[in-house]
Structure of NUDIX domain-containing protein:
Amino acid sequence: MDVVFSTKKAVFNYRVAGIWIENGHVLLHRAVNESNWSLPGGRVEIAEDSKSSLKREFREELGNDVRVDRMVLVIENFFEHGRKDFHEIGFYYLITAEENPSSFRKDTFHGIEGERLIFKWTSIKNLNEVELYPECLRTALKDLPQHIQHFVVK
């Protein structure tokens, strides 16, 4: 069961995401019916730690075993989606492939769950041209902090 609950005021969501960088590009994903991109990951399950959750999400969505290197960002994200207000806590980790030397591709691709999500490697230099949420990622990914950085996005 995911750590998500709804109230009359908003939906609370506990999310984890991976920052996977190869060849000056970062891996992004989006739902096929949406235009905005985000870092791959998903909701944390009850009684699951965030690192295990991130590993599970990458295994489920891409079939990749990843190594979670370190936490980079904590983002408190307040946004509206589908006429609902959301309050999301996101833990963002730097990750690398566990075994595969490279997963980089030039074209967009679908994960192993079918055609629900589209993935693409995007040049970090060109992130300002991408509809990427939370928006603070556009600058944070260009110069990854050495210590955990905290953002509040409203």
About this structure: The radius of gyration is 15 Å. The first helix runs from residue 50 to 62.
